[in-house]
Amino acid sequence: MHVDYKHRIFGLDVFRALAILLVLFSHTTLLLFPNKESFVLEVIKFFGAIGVDLFFVLSGFLIGGIILKQIHLNKTAFKDFGYFWVRRWFRTLPNYFLILLVNIILYFIFFRKVISGIGHYFLFLQNFSEGQADFFTESWSLSIEEYAYIIGPLVLFLLLVFFKNSSKDKLFISSVVVIICLVTFLRFDFHLNNTLTSDHHWSKELRKVVIFRIDSIYYGFIGAFFSINYSTIWKQYKVWLFFSGIFLFFVMHFLVFWYDVKPINAPLFYNIFYLPLVSISLVLLLPLFSNWNHAHFFKREITYISILSYAVYLINYSIVLLTIQYFINLSNASIVTKVGVLIVFWFLSFYLAYLLYVFFERPFTNLRDSKFIKDKFN
């Protein structure tokens, strides 16, 4: 697999690789210890959830940077935003729809039926305003990302139309703040009208729902705004900001653990404040990671994991893990059996992701640079 290292930032590859590895370790606990609970397993699962948050803020940071550079070049016509969307969709949609179809086929083979509401998945509506069905469960985060990529640029375009003489940078950050405030209001409305019954209820009905979570992407947009418009501060204080993010993240979660703070006994904190604070703490890590350009160890391996991360994310749980669980019951399996299954799970997750990337994802991604696409938007 050929990689052009000149156009990659190693620190962001580390960020992305860390995110997918945290998700994989979390899913490993679900595979090997499906009916077991312990403090260690809960910590691993928790960091798996944080892995998704890492993806959110990184996606927002990268996409926000692309949009900012676009408006700085005065590419603010609707066709310019259309070109942005088309490029993004060539990167994300082919993989998503292929894996969705594979999930539908496997579900039909195993259970001889198709779940109700399957059409919602083709429009990313399966978790738009409420928790989605227990099918292709990892797709919840993809819905959030897709709507964030649509809504943010659309709001910005409208502001650019109505406030033509205003600073484009101010309109960019204004659009982000407006969306974050709106999402916060929707979470507050959820808080007033819902009684949480468990951690799972909170996760399914709020943490994994589009209208309550797209702000996670826009905190990454704020990071992009500061990295471009205040680049000196972004670089000069990268270490200080990194340790501030680490401090915020671990002190908050130490207090949550120490005082046994949970959604069921502290719903206001979890419904309104917890997820934004996690996003902010992770954004504070980006100045250091985005300025980390030199690798002294495992450069190729980390870069490969980063490149395959999207394919791995789509494949590892619904395709590999659930298929293994369908054929093998590991609840009372021996250590030898579990080690063997563990090796198979990790190998298949990366090998199938490699095939998906090389023969499907990369060819479609390359199409966005084709003459046909460029001519349509020039």
From TrEMBL:
A Gene Ontology BP annotation from the UniProt entry: polysaccharide biosynthetic process
Listed transmembrane segments: 12-34, 46-68, 89-110, 147-164, 171-190, 210-228, 240-259, 271-290, 302-328, 340-360
Membrane as UniProt keyword: yes
Acyltransferase domain mapped to chain residues: 11-357
UniProt xrefs under Pfam families: Acyl_transf_3
GO MF annotation terms: acyltransferase activity, transferring groups other than amino-acyl groups
Keywords carried by this UniProt record: Membrane, Transmembrane, Transmembrane helix
Top-level taxon: Bacteria
Record-level GO cellular component terms: membrane
UniProt name for this protein: Acyltransferase 3 domain-containing protein
Upper taxonomic lineage: Bacteria, Pseudomonadati, Bacteroidota, Flavobacteriia, Flavobacteriales
